[in-house]
Amino acid sequence: MLSHMEYDWNNFNEESETERIKKRNTRILLVAILLFVLAAIALFVTFINRVPANVSSGVEEASASVIETTQQPIVSEESTKSGEGLMVAFLDVGQGDSIFLQSPSGKTMLVDGGEQSAFDTISAYLDAHDVIGLDVVVASHLHSDHIGGLIQVIDVYPVGAFYYPPFDAESETYYNLLDALNESETTVYSPLASKDAFIDWDDEVTVRILSPYQTIYSDFNDTSYILNVTYGDTSVLLAGDATELSETLALKALPNEYFQANVLKVGHHGSNTSTSFKFLDAVDPDIAIISCGVDNEYGHPHEELLLRLQAYGIQVYRTDLDGTITLLLDGANVKVIQ
């Protein structure tokens, strides 16, 4: 169990603790109702299966329809979209990262949550896609522009499992995240990278952890998870805020083939200290996504990085220019659908 620390939540954001608890309870109630409905459907299916063989074909068709419904995940977006492939949406949360993924079977994952102010954007997106809970949530690392919005996500949405790298941060945002996890009783994991390190999510999708390792990083950005999410022959690599040092260590530790991906979410919002030539050689992406804020104070993305991507002929999309960017990986090809 995570250590529990008390803070003045009224200073944390404008939404009161009572309102957050009310929202979370509403989500939990919806899940409970859905479970009850599924149980009722299961009883109905059992009854239908006991009907004599000479029943009408109409009843048989109804039974088949019910069985198909009961196989859908509890936490899902629209089933017609989820069945087409792996959907990956890079949300426009300003100067930060937040990535929503939905597997072909309807499993959901959220990687990062931007700053605290990003929660409204994330919540609006999830609600618009009928997501009432998340199977997996990942914090790529513990900087506020990646975990700030996750605190309210955990408060409001049921979360099956939460992952973050095992490197503590000394910040109030991090301690508030620990509080939220403690109160939610969500299962928490903190694996390091290795040849056999994965995030358990969906049988059809592989989520491989390529970094970080158990070492001392002088730049906390290098404690970021680098994840390769693969469906069929298509994949997207999420580099968090990893710099060239972390990229180099990972490439030395693991085969280059583990890094190959059609889509690269470039490291550190397009900083020139990330996404080195060697890393680009290994990943060999067709599409690069840069998540950054409009006219941000850091000058992201840096011109040197953009020239690097241009030299490789990579198609670039940016949340500061394009807004939320949604891709569909069907196992053979990648389509930009929004």
Q: Using only CA atoms, what is the Rg?
A: 21 Å
Structural class: alpha/beta
Estimate the helix proportion, in percent: 25-40%
Biggest β-sheet, characterized?
8 strands, mixed
Please give the count of helices.
Answer: 11
Distance between the termini: 40 Å
Biggest β-sheet: strands ordered side by side in the sheet:
6-5-4-3-2-1-13-14
Number of strands: 14
**Which regions are unreliable across 5 or more consecutive residues at pLDDT < 50?**
1-15, 43-80
Mean residue pLDDT: 84
The proportion of strand residues reads 15-25%
SSE order in H/E notation?
HHHEEEHEHHEHEEEEHEHEHEHEE
Estimate the global geometry from the Cα principal axes: globular
